[in-house]
What does this fold into?
Amino acid sequence: MAFAGVAVLAVLWTPFAAWWALPHPEMTAAGRVWVGFVYLPLVLWAPLLCAVALDLRRRSRPVPPTRH
It folds into this structure.
């Protein structure tokens, strides 16, 4: 289920990585920089959630019995 969240977040926030490449004539230069720096960390949400989901899956697997 977490990987579905990763896919949704990637679709939602990855295009925001190109914030500075898009024209924003209604904003001042300072406003563009401020909005970019405030919202740019959301781009990292999907890869970080993926890392957490992979670690949880790794840790929740049953441990195979050891031979003595």
Q: What stands out?
A: The chain has a mean pLDDT of 86. Helices lie at 2-13, 29-39, 45-59.
